[in-house]
Amino acid sequence: MRKLRLPLDEETIVSLNCGEEVLLSGYIYTARDAAHKRMMDDIPFEIKDSTIYYVGPSAFKPGEIYGSCGPTTASRMDAYTPYLLDKGLKCIIAKGKRSKEVREALVRNKAVYFVTVGGLGAYLKKCVKEVKDIAYPDLGTEAIRRLYIEDFPAFVGIDTKGQDIYE
């Protein structure tokens, strides 16, 4: 399993192959449907070279820094994703198939789609080491947050050549 440090440089992104297993460490941003819609008008963080994780964590108990955080189905963000990739987004983490338009935008922008497994939210929260609120607190668990993750398991779902694990 290949260990990767986020943000990824272009050389690393281009070297990734569809289906390759990785462990991700570094800073990522969380965003789901409502946050993506708002980002069409104003992106509240530096998008260039960043990673977005499609997640809405469950509530968490006192003493925990984050709740269970399994991936959200990616296709719900497909209408917004090409725009964000064109603005400099380099990595996405989620689950499920992507549209042809997203695949083309990943290739065009030399970006990568990482897939992680649904149902692992309780395990994945153990990879979250730091949480900072960034924007849209009114969205509750769907607010944008910056997470620091360590050894977060994923695999390459779509690489920069357009190879798609779902096809």
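the 2nd protein, sequnce then structure:
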Amino acid sequence: MKNEERVVLCGANSYEQKYYLNQDFENLPKGIQDELKMICVLYTEEVGGILTIEYEEDGSLILRSAADDMDYLYDEISAGLKIRQIQQERQELFQALELYYQIFFLQQEQVL
């Protein structure tokens, strides 16, 4: 299987209680940055583990959840359900972020 390169937009880590926003995206509007932080931090508070929001090579966004091997409280099923809930509730935000990345980073022309 091909090792695809992904670009991390942001993420949160419940073990270190830290949030990360990729410096390449610091010019996103403050409101969007705050919303991304809220999504990541609330997710890790509720589910635990580590959540990253990443761009795939084609510019689509994925939410990736992981946990330490010794974290016996982390539930993969609950994590997956929460990710699906976030994707549904924040669909417009994620579509806008995908479009932003495709235009400004991948320099794709968009046909409206």
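The chain has a mean pLDDT of 93. The radius of gyration is 14 Å.
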